[in-house]
Amino acid sequence: MSRSMKIRQQLKQKTSLKMAIVAASASITGLVVLLIVVFNMSQNEEGHAAQSAMTFKNAETFQETSSILRGSSNQKVIKVVVETVGSGKSVKMASMKFSTKGTSIPVEQNIENARLWFTGNDPNFIPSQQVGLTISKLSDRPFDIITNQDLLTGKNYFWLTVDVKPDANYSSAAIDATCEDFRIGAIAYQPLISDPLGKRFIEANIPYYSTGNYSVNNINAWNSRRDGKGVAPKQLHASRNSYFIQAGHRMISSTGTSLQTLVVERGGDLRITAPLRLNNMSVAYGGVLENDMQETGIHCFNFFNMENGSSYIHNTTGDIPGATCIFEPKSNQTFFQLGNLNIEKSIEWGNVSLDLQNDGPTNIKGVFNHVLGNLEIRRTGSTSGFCSVEGTDKMDIDGSLIITGGEFKGVKSASKDKLNISIGKNLVINGGYFSDADVLNNAGSTIMSVAGDVMMLAGTFNMTRGSESVLKFDKGASSKWVQKSETNVVLGDILVAKNHELQIKSETMGDITAGHKLTVEPNASIMCGNAVIYGEGEFHLSDQSIIGIGHPQGLASKGQKGNIRTAERYYSSGATYVYYTQSQPQETGVFSTTPNDKTIRCLVLNKEKTGLALTLSSDLVISDKIQIQKGDLKEGDYDLQLPAVSAKN
């Protein structure tokens, strides 16, 4: 007695029905109800869910509390975080009202030029998008800033800054502000906390400003007023003096000198070719500091601070000049040369670019242990130049690892050393060469964990030279794999770990070489689309995992058919098999499963359009459930055995 049945999904009218029992039959041994769960989610329902109206959720104000220099500009006072929910049409922040409550009086003697900046969903302060007009004259009265700013879904970050006057009060004088309220559309709201605790105290520095493209140690290069109509400092090295390099001025330190504080402002530029001793060196957003000083073994700055959007160029085999370095995540550090850096304490870098011009191998062990932004390798010297790590090391990259040129050869060791690379965002290969180890059959290995996407666009990527190297997707997120034909991709062991989903968005993924395997762990998923995973290695689909099958030929255990074409293939009978994409016609394919052959836990059919069909290529037993979200399932000449329904179902 045949158990085959024809199963079709027909949507003649729009409906909100979520579940329906569409088929039942009796077995020869007794009553067995066969269940197919149909999830009928119409385009209108999906569109409505995706376009739920955006609404205001809450807002909170946060206080900046670090000390502040007299004469400095664009200084953060408070941050206002406005959170919205829903992804429909954006709502507008119409206006925001602030006060200078908490600022030492008279307010107008201490601060001027209030500005409001918007960084979208980015929690890092970058003064690049000003909203509303600058409020040039400030007093103890509240002021409104007309914003007309579209809000994004989630947290929106607004920042209020002021300029501190050169003759501002000090000795316990402070700067503070309050967000009184704001209007979204025509409705006024108040933050949960309008006036957070704390304030910024004003330092007792005496500010001087650059007057042109001069040497730093030229006393006439500085003036007490920004417009140059004040006076030059009496003593360049006075302990209270602070110096600001203004926009458009390119200065140089070509002879040794010592100063207390120097700030490179937005649009300013400083080049150091001789020792410049500083207690505090700060580079503001848009400022550039270039270090060409060929000196080793000494830190010229006690404190080296870099704001988001600032740039530091290291063009020396000498040391990083800061004894204590505080680099914000979106500051930029570019290395044209790289010697044995004298780093006494681990530095948290911003965005790092290696554009090396020196020859031979460069050991970066212990240098880039924590990168808050991206690490990009552009060039590693001449044809013989490359970067590697000599010994066991780790590299935590909160942003992306980007290879656009040069060579990075992982571990350079003959022992069982390991390099652990943790990538918080994407792995991008767009030129150059990356390998997990320097020497073939080397016992050293690279363990690389990727939370974001992998983009193989050009160049070479080889993860087979080390003895225990592995590329892991293990951050509990969703990653995309994009691989272009211009890239030479040689893959070793790949692990898609628990709770992670890997989506293949290109035509191929490979080559998985002999002796290596791609493993999809329990509770992990790999969505293949139409891509082909190939190579002389193995493919392992674990129990309780998920595979998405988009190839017209489905899956196969042998031959060059379907999504998986590795030399060895292992499909678990306890996994979920999702057939999707626009492939038409599409077959399930002929594949074996273990431990129970021709058996799968769950079959999901979710084609991109209604009417697209999936046809059985062999008999198939479904042990748990079948979900038909969109598309037609046809049994053809084969038997489809569906799960029984118990009283618990």
Total DSSP E strands? 55
- Give the C-alpha Rg: 31 Å
**Mean of residue pLDDT?**
89
Distance between the termini: 26 Å
Major sheet description: 23 strands, parallel
Shape descriptor reads flat
Alpha-beta classification: mainly beta
Secondary structure: helix percent: under 10%
Describe it for me?
This protein has a 23-stranded parallel beta sheet that branches. Strands 25, 28, 31, 34, 36, 38, 41, 43, 44, 46 and 48 form an eleven-stranded parallel beta sheet that branches. With 649 residues, it is mainly β. The protein is built from two helices and 55 strands. Among the domains are: 1-51 and 491-649, no CATH class; 71-201, Immunoglobulin-like (Sandwich). The model is unreliable at 1-50 (pLDDT under 50).
Descriptive terms for the model:
flat; mainly beta; 649 residues; 23-stranded parallel beta sheet
SSE topology sketch:
Blueprint: E1 37-38, H1 43-50, E2 55-63, E3 75-85, E4 92-99, H2 107-110, E5 111-118, E6 130-135, E7 143-150, E8 154-164, E9 174-175, E10 178-184, E11 187-189, E12 200-201, E13 206-210, E14 222-223, E15 241-245, E16 250-253, E17 257-264, E18 269-272, E19 276-283, E20 288-291, E21 301-306, E22 311-314, E23 322-327, E24 332-335, E25 348-349, E26 351-356, E27 361-363, E28 370-371, E29 375-380, E30 386-389, E31 393-397, E32 401-403, E33 407-411, E34 418-423, E35 427-435, E36 445-450, E37 454-462, E38 470-473, E39 478-483, E40 487-490, E41 493-496, E42 501-504, E43 508-509, E44 517-520, E45 525-527, E46 532-541, E47 546-549, E48 564-571, E49 576-581, E50 586-587, E51 599-607, E52 613-615, E53 620-630, E54 632-634, E55 640-641
Parallel strand pairs: 1-53, 13-15, 15-17, 16-18, 17-19, 18-20, 19-21, 20-22, 21-23, 22-24, 24-26, 25-28, 26-29, 27-30, 28-31, 29-32, 30-33, 31-34, 32-35, 33-35, 34-36, 35-37, 36-38, 37-39, 37-40, 38-41, 39-42, 41-44, 42-45, 43-46, 44-46, 45-47, 46-48, 47-49, 49-51, 50-52, 51-53, 52-54, 53-55
Antiparallel strand pairs: 2-3, 3-8, 4-7, 4-10, 5-6, 5-8, 9-12, 10-11, 13-14
